């Protein structure tokens, strides 16, 4: 957030200290955003590496959809976006300091847009994503991840209700439901049943 406040450009890209940008990524992303004002984000392939970036393995990120995005984070933090769209949000939420603040930020952005998000995935390598055993995300336990998912649900209820109008019929909802422990899982299912009845009964 401090970096954005000190910036003056029309476009933003956030980069973790461990990762590397691929040559040509910024140019291709900005060109796409300039050519299509309706685009929200641009990103691309992100090979993973541990030692030298010339020895990579594919990172099998699923294609973007809002259903997928609500059940798992299918975007990395280093997407290119417009500063004007960032300013629609309150920025990154420090309450998610344990991890996945980028997931929360993307959901906040999509919630703040006047219309549907449009995300373009470039086929070229755009980011080299470093994996380390001691990284913060690698240290996130199942318990912490469950807590993060609950907090995302509580914070973005309107977004979940919009894209899961009949939650019991969606594969994404089933995946989300399985990520909770038994008691919390049934609690979420009950909340969503009540929401469904309130909206459509």
Q: How many DSSP H or I helices?
A: 9
Overall geometry: globular
Q: Look at the helices and sheets and give the structural class.
A: alpha/beta
Order of strands in the sheet with the most strands?
A: 1-5-3-6
Count of discrete structural domains: 1
Low-confidence stretches: none
Rg result: 18 Å
The assigned CATH architecture is Alpha-Beta Complex
SSE topology string? HEEHEEHEHHEEHHHH
Q: CATH H-level name... which superfamily?
A: Spore Coat Polysaccharide Biosynthesis Protein SpsA, Chain A
CATH class category? Alpha Beta
CATH fold field value: Spore Coat Polysaccharide Biosynthesis Protein SpsA, Chain A
Count of extended strands? 7
Strand content: 5-15%
Helix content: 40-55%
Overall pLDDT confidence? 84
| Intertermini distance | 42 Å
Q: How is the biggest beta sheet arranged?
A: 4 strands, mixed
Brief rundown of the structure:
The chain is an alpha/beta fold and 201 residues long.
């Amino acid at each position: 957030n401090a970096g954005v406040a000190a910036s003056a450009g029309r476009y933003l890209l956030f980069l973790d200290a461990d990762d590397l940008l691929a040559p040509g990524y910024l140019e291709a992303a900005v060109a796409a955003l300039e050519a299509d004002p309706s685009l929200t984000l641009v990103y691309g392939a992100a090979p993973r590496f541990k030692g030298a970036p010339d020895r990579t393995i594919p990172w099998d990120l699923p294609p973007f959809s809002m259903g997928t995005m609500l059940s798992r984070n299918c975007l990395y933090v280093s997407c290119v976006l417009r500063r004007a769209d960032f300013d629609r949000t309150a920025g990154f939420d420090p309450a998610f300091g344990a991890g996945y603040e980028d997931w929360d930020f993307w959901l906040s952005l999509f919630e703040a847009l006047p219309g549907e998000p449009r995300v373009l995935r470039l086929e070229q390598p755009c980011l080299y994503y470093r994996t380390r055993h001691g990284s913060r995300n690698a240290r996130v336990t199942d318990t912490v991840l469950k807590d993060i998912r609950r907090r995302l649900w509580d914070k973005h209820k309107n977004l979940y209700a919009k894209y899961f109008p009949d939650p019991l019929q969606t594969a994404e909802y089933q995946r989300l439901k399985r990520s909770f422990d038994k008691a919390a899982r049934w609690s979420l299912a009950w909340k969503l049943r009540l929401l469904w009845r309130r909206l459509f009964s």
